[in-house]
Specification:
The structure holds two protein chains of two kinds.
Chain A (H helix, E strand, L loop, with lengths): L2 H30 L4 H10 L7 H14 L6 H13 L14 H36 L4 H13 L4 H15 L18 H38 L3 H8 L4 H26 L6 H6 L5 H10 L3 H29 L7
Chain B lengths: L1 H22 L19 E5 L31 H4 L5 E4 L4 E4 L7 E2 L5 E5 L14 H13 L6 H6 E8 L2 E6 L11 E2 L10 H4 L18 E6 L5 E6 L4 H5 L8 E5 L4 H9 L11 H10 L3 E2 L14 E7 L9 H9 L3 H7 L19 H8 L3 H6 L2 E2 L4 H6 L13 E2 L3 H10 L3 E2 L5 E2 L7 E7 L4 H16 L3 E7 L1 H10 L4 E2 L4 E2 L6 H4 L29 H10 L7 H17 L2 E5 L7 E2 L3 E2 L19 H5 L3 E2 L24 E2 L2 H7 L14 H7 L22 H28 L5
Parallel strand pairs in B: 1-11, 2-8, 4-26, 18-19, 18-20
Antiparallel strand pairs in B: 2-3, 4-5, 5-7, 6-7, 9-10, 10-11, 12-23, 13-20, 13-21, 13-22, 14-15, 16-17, 24-25
Helix pairs in contact in B: 7-8, 9-14, 18-19
Classes of the chains: A mainly alpha, B alpha+beta.
């Protein structure tokens, strides 16, 4: 068998193992928490002082254990989860009973995908372009200025930045809405709809792009470039008299792209867990908020559904990256 | 180098152009989701306090057990305020019944085993189908037959239901109950509504999405945010109420919207993009108070906060966990508290103050007259001081000081606390700290809220400080709502800021029910529902059980029922199973910019200003446009709504019952009821919803002063960057 095939097989096995371990961990952890979705719901009833009765409460409790799939010992439940996953049935959401988890995820997923994939790509692209250029010309003033900005922005807590943006661009200079996903009455695909969606996504996206592009992506590509440009092969290219632009494009960028692409892949894979703070601050619908609510309410099925997406997302991204390396990394060959 | 600069410049230009293009999109009024051309003055904007609905298309009010936080039924969507068909409402401001779809209060047979519901003539669903006794009968039978957990109450309590004529339904109960109609009367939240038979018949009660809902209220659902943040309702001009009562609501549209975290809500209310909201944290409340001159709250001017939330917050003891199983220990801990410190900590920046509640009874005026004043002498025997916080309350112009200067609390008495503890074998160690009777150090853990109901957390820390000062080690454990509710339910706590003491109306039984009689309190510690573990089946308090048993044979609203409540309250005081401090104040702001005639205390107190309760319908029917915001279809001078406030029930005599039911089936005609029958078979309403769970996010506690500072700092940094970039671009030195 060729080395390539062995390589692919080992990666696929790792991919499957990751998912099995991930699902097991996601199954175990919520069950170790000091609470139980059924009793928590009963507790809710007790804390509101409404009309109820022990007979009814007992009936409710038994029914809920059954309906939520929480009857039987943990091992039975564990195998039941796998049975369900194989039939692509994530079960009903506990907090939104009886709506299936799959329905709720399908409502939230497009928002998360739209916002996060675009903003991640944009911030990656901008961050890497300016980071690499600044790193290459690190003695220039613009480079120092940008580095200063990045160092200031990077540690600013996200929600402060998000609230400052909201305060500035939705209140003082009200060009963007305070929050929400869309505010068009009478749907139907139209330019108005696209613009309305864009307008609502703008502030959340900017709040992700600014710290991303000017923070992490800038700093990492800046550091990588500053480091790489002192290596011998770059020095050699310079001594050969190659123009700066050529050195940058042919010698540096490809080397910097490799770790940055890996990070991008992982970031894209991680999209599936949503962006909780963005969604909370801008009342933006998405998976992060759904997952947060699921954790607070111990909605086992929902936690499993979203985590599974995330696990599969990151594992798939890793798998693809492993398989793609030969294409982007000049130093990797499978022969 | 030029090339790189041009890339930089191009990127910057791209971002700039995109921002400009987006900002050029025309903004309708503010950013509200309204049909094209609708002016602000036509719309009443109410906070969707529930947040983002995971599935905004499910309008099935019965499928969920109704206790999950995300079902569609709660007040965040407007469904229960504008659409749901309720037979009766209870006016929480005076504890009277408001017959709505029913023409009058329910008429009970003399033995309370049957009741008659008379439907108002001329009521119809918004699709034109008449709403009749058939719908009532259908609803009860449909729920009775639906798979559990749907209709648990109907399954257990309703023997049969049938229509005597088009407008009269006869409901026979499995056991006597003079309060059965509370299942279908809005106390505040989650009461049962009548289902339209022509829509629901033959539908799967669990899967039917009921989308859009067929309403019997003055509005129909017009649009829903696919993202689950807002719900737009449009006035139905042919509404039955307009014909029967002669009123048309002023607002053409009612919008329920979630703007996001408290900061966004505060900004929205400052911009007049939100007319009514649930509450805000103090920092955000301050922002609105300072920046919105038209603001109203529970009162027309400051202090604004509504001090009569239906649950008394405070500290609950797990009375089956030593040493909290001894009432002397519980009382000692009460005497160790300086109530003035807690009270003062809750005085708001607008001078809002809480209403002290030593009893588990919300001190509405009627409750003060019925319970607090008659019990005053008894309470004083336990150290109740009616003047304890009178000076603070008076300083801050609290609503009750002039008329009812009797609201106080247990006076701090450290000597008495010591004596009580010593009598139980506690002693003080050489370091001045209390030791348990077995000689081990005494450490109390207080479980409290985290991320929601933050007021309760504040109470926990304040109490902990005072118990520490008294010589007890105290640990405060904040918990998210899931673990918090679980630990309460199964009784897994020593002390917690739970709130078993709720009372929405003067007929306290509506809230007490199975928390006050041992026959209903069968769960052992560790089992869900055990809670505080007071008066349980394994250790019953006989005299309390007798009182509750008699209450179950006594019609609500009668003088005897109030005597019985007072007797029960005396036993509660003696045992002190939990320590309520007060209902925590809510900033239920109402914006007077676009809309007026909001309910305000005391001059226009026709309803509590609580936008997430079903009763808010009556506010929506009464508000008027101010004319400050442009209008097109709003009714500028709506006719005032006049509806009768009636007693809670009617009890027929044997002869009246005979004539009402046409002679059949004859009622037993005997008023004696055996209590054991009532015990085993009564099952009550499960379609309740959380009343007082504030889903405040802890991440939102940001000081606006700091924010402006940060904004300025970011601005300066950006300016510096701009200058730096400008200089570089300006020099255009050749690349090295």
């Amino acid at each position: 068998m060729s080395k390539l095939l062995i390589f692919i097989a080992s990666r696929v096995v790792a991919f499957i193992l990751t998912i099995v371990i991930g699902v097991t961990v996601v199954f175990v952890i919520p069950r170790l928490l000091p609470y139980n979705p059924v009793e928590a719901q009963i507790g809710f009833i007790y804390s509101i002082g409404q009309f109820y009765d022990p007979t009814a409460i007992d009936m409710l409790r038994q029914t809920l254990y059954e309906l939520y799939g929480l009857k039987g010992n943990p091992l039975d439940q564990y195998f039941a989860v796998w049975r369900r996953l194989f039939t692509i049935d994530l079960g009903p959401s506990i907090m939104n009973f009886p709506t299936p988890v799959a329905t709720l995820i399908s409502i939230a997923l497009p928002w998360t995908l739209g916002l996060l994939s675009l903003s991640t790509l944009i911030s990656w692209t901008i961050g890497n372009i300016i980071g690499t250029i600044s790193g290459f010309f690190s003695h220039k003033k613009f480079s120092k200025a940008l580095t200063g900005v990045a160092v200031v922005l990077y540690p600013v807590p996200y929600f402060i930045l998000a609230l400052v943006l909201m305060f500035t661009f939705a209140f003082l200079i009200p060009i963007f809405p305070l929050g929400g996903g869309v505010t068009l009455v009478g749907m139907g695909f139209s330019l108005d709809l696209v613009l309305n969606l864009a307008k609502h996504a703008a502030l959340p996206a900017i709040s992700i792009i600014i710290p991303g592009a000017l923070g992490w992506w800038f700093l990492s590509s800046f550091t990588l470039t500053s480091q790489k440009k002192t290596e011998d092969f770059v020095r050699y290219a310079e001594l050969k008299g190659l123009p700066n632009s050529l050195v940058l494009r042919r010698y540096l960028i490809r080397n910097i792209l490799m770790p940055q692409t890996t990070a991008l892949g992982l970031a894209l894979g991680g999209i599936f867990s949503g962006a909780l703070l963005t969604e909370v601050v801008y009342a933006y619908p998405g998976l992060g908020r759904l997952l947060y609510a699921a954790i607070i309410n111990n909605d086992y099925n929902m936690i499993m559904g979203i985590s599974l997406l995330s696990i599969v997302g990151v594992s798939l991204a890793t798998l693809f990256l492993d398989l793609l390396y030969p294409l982007i990394d000049p130093t990797v060959r499978y022969r | 180098m030029k090339r790189e600069i041009s890339i930089l410049g191009f990127s910057a230009a791209l971002v700039l152009v995109a921002a400009l293009a987006l900002s050029a999109i025309p903004i309708s009024y503010g950013q509200l989701p309204l049909p094209a051309g609708v002016p602000r003055g036509d719309v009443l904007v109410i906070e969707n306090h529930w947040g983002t609905y995971a599935n905004p298309n499910n309008w099935n009010p019965i499928a969920s057990p109704g206790v999950g936080p995300a079902s569609i039924a709660p007040g965040g969507s407007g469904y229960q305020q504008l659409c749901k068909a309720f037979l009766w409402y209870i006016n929480t401001s005076n504890s009277m019944l408001i017959p709505w779809i029913a023409a009058e209060p329910p008429i009970y047979s003399p033995d309370f085993t049957s009741l008659i519901v008379k439907i108002r003539d001329g009521v119809y669903w918004n699709d034109g189908t008449p709403l009749t006794a058939e719908d009532v009968v259908f609803t009860l039978k449909y729920l009775k037959e639906a798979p559990a957990p749907i209709g648990t109450n109907e399954k257990a309590s309703v023997k049969d239901a049938r229509a005597l004529d088009k407008l009269t339904a006869l409901i026979e109960l499995n056991s006597p109950n003079p309060r059965w109609h509370y299942f279908y009367a809005v106390i505040i939240y989650g009461a049962g509504g009548i289902l339209p038979k022509h829509v629901w018949e033959g539908k799967d009660p669990q899967k039917f999405e009921n989308n859009p809902p067929t309403c019997a209220g003055p509005y129909n659902l017009r649009a829903v945010d696919p993202a689950g943040n807002w719900f737009l309702w449009e006035r139905f001009d042919n509404w039955w109420g307009s014909k029967v009562f002669g009123v048309v609501p002023a607002a053409k549209y009612v919008l329920y919207i979630n703007h996001g975290p408290d900061e966004a809500k505060a900004l929205a209310m400052t911009k007049h993009e939100l007319d009514a909201l649930r509450t805000l944290l103090p920092e955000q409340a301050e922002l609105v108070i300072k920046n919105n001159p038209y603001l109203k709250g529970w009162r027309a001017s400051a202090p604004f906060a509504w001090p009569l939330d239906p649950c008394v917050k405070g500290i609950a003891f797990q009375t089956k966990t030593p040493p909290f199983d001894k009432r002397e220990v519980r009382w000692a801990l009460a005497y160790a508290i300086d109530y003035r410190v807690i009270y003062r900590a809750f005085v708001g920046i607008d001078k809002s103050t809480p209403s002290p509640a030593a009893l588990p009874v919300i001190p509405h005026a009627a409750d003060i007259e019925t319970f607090y004043i008659p019990l005053l002498d008894y309470l004083k025997q336990y150290g109740y001081d009616p003047e304890l916080v009178l000076d603070i309350a008076r300083e801050n112009n609290a609503w009750w000081v002039s008329q009812y200067p009797v609201l106080g609390w247990w006076k701090q008495d450290l000597a008495k606390a010591e004596q009580l503890l010593t009598s139980q074998g506690f002693k003080k160690g050489p370091d001045g700290k209390w030791l348990m009777p077995d000689g081990t150090p005494w450490t109390i853990e207080i479980k409290t809220t985290s991320g929601f109901e933050m007021e309760s957390q504040r109470i926990a820390f304040l109490v902990a400080d005072q118990w520490r000062a008294f010589g007890i080690d105290v640990k405060v454990t904040p918990l998210e709502s899931g673990p918090f509710s679980t630990s309460y339910s199964i009784g897994d706590f020593q002390v917690g800021t739970f709130w078993p003491g709720c009372s929405q109306i003067l007929d306290l039984y509506a809230n007490w029910y199975n928390r006050w009689s041992s026959k209903y309190w069968t769960q052992k510690k560790g089992e869900g529902g055990h809670g505080t573990g007071w008066n349980t089946a394994d250790a019953p308090i006989t005299e309390l059980d007798q009182i509750v048993a008699e209450l179950e044979r006594t019609a609500p609203g009668t003088p005897r029922s109030y005597e019985l409540y007072r007797e029960a309250l005396k036993i509660w005081v003696r045992d002190l199973p939990w320590l309520g401090v007060f209902p925590t104040p809510f900033y239920t702001f109402q914006d007077g910019y676009a809309w007026d005639n909001w309910p305000t205390h005391p001059e226009n107190y026709y309803m509590d200003p609580v936008s997430w309760w079903s009763q808010h319908l009556f506010v929506i029917l009464k508000v008027k446009p101010t004319g400050r915001a442009p209008t097109k279809d709003a009714i500028m001078d709506p006719k005032p709504l006049k509806v009768a406030n009636t007693p809670l029930v009617k009890i027929a005599t044997a002869a009246e019952w005979q004539s009402l039911t046409g002679g059949a089936p004859p009622a037993a005609g005997v008023t004696t009821v055996t209590v054991t029958q009532a015990v085993t078979q009564r099952v009550t309403e499960l379609r309740t919803q959380v009343v007082t769970q504030v889903q405040t996010q802890t991440i939102t506690a940001v000081d606006w002063g700091t924010l402006s500072g940060v904004a300025a700092a970011v601005g300066i940094v950006l300016l510096v960057v701009g200058i730096a970039v400008g200089r570089v671009l300006g020099r255009r030195r050749p690349a090295q």
